[in-house]
Amino acid sequence: MRCDLLPDPTELAPEETKNFEGTKTVGDFVIAGGSDGNPLFDNCHQGAEGASSYNYDLSRKSDLTKLYNSPVYLAERMKRPLANMGVMIGPISHSGVRVTLSDGSTWLVHKGNGFGVSSQTVVVDARHMSNKWQIVETKNFGGTKKIADFVRAGGTDYSLLFNNCHFGADQMMKQ
């Protein structure tokens, strides 16, 4: 399993950690591309001595800023079984929201324990999603919300019982 997260902000030059329209810094979110592995480390694998290794879908600040500020036209709340489980039983599953942009590209916004650096809500290129994901709900946002709004709605913190992926996906769809 690969971990395709944006570099840790401490690895970036100071000029690359400027605010995005005054709301977020690079360290506030992660652009990722992963696979359906361990539900707690969905987009990561552990390298030597437990350290994560990274490959990036988007590593330039300009690409990251463009994506973060992109209008969302369609949002689909989705669910999949947890890793190593073939079925979904109520909350024993993983949730996220797949968003479609004006250029037709799709991205999964979801959260989990250990997914991000300073936010546990991350953005994953939807081409990394397995075929186990199922659409639960669809909402047309017509470009009125940006990816930034979905990341913000998903929340920075994670709690298995009180602020998990299901709560995050619900908040994204209710905005």
TrEMBL record:
Protein name, entry field: Uncharacterized protein
Protein species of origin: Muraenolepis orangiensis
